[in-house]
Specification:
mainly alpha; 2 domains; two-stranded parallel ribbon; Cbl-dep_enz_cat; methylmalonyl-CoA mutase activity
Length: 143
């Protein structure tokens, strides 16, 4: 049910977007935002700074950029084409009170085009125990 867009049909002319230098870009950004580039830096939840612009200078010296997927040391992944021919799947993480309800839900979603399942088991199962194990009596049925 996924559609792969045909990017060859885009009406795109690179000359519509002339190259500008960093200083010109910086001037326009600061004028439009009323802030300096330093004020535009944001932080992720992990407290990692995210700059408003990255250039090729920011990745200079990264040795792994020349590596290819499917070839040791596998920094780019284990398969040469990775997800080029098989797009990522979008899945809903779900589970219901009974196996029958869950099964019906999963089957409906797959019939409607969902590409895979992410099943929400109870906490006991996630922890690797059978639901009748005495160590997880209070965890059975909880997610």
């Amino acid at each position: 049910m996924t559609k792969t867009p045909d990017f060859t049909q885009l009406n795109y002319d690179a000359t519509d977007f002339p190259a500008v230098g960093f200083d010109a870009w910086k001037t326009q950004v600061e004028k439009a935002s009323g802030k300096t580039l330093d004020q535009l830096v944001t932080k992720t939840m992990e407290h990692i700074d995210v700059e408003s612009l990255y250039t090729k200078d920011d990745i200079a010296g990264f040795p792994h950029l020349g590596y290819v997927a499917g070839i040791p040391p596998y920094f780019r992944g284990p398969y040469p084409s990775m997800y080029v021919t098989r797009p990522w799947t979008v899945r809903q993480y779900a589970g219901f009170s009974t196996a029958e309800e869950s099964n019906a839900f999963y089957r409906r979603n797959l019939a409607a085009g969902q590409m895979g399942l992410s099943i929400a088991f109870d906490l006991a199962t996630h922890r690797g125990y059978d639901s009748d194990n005495e160590r997880v009596v209070g965890d059975v049925g909880k997610a």
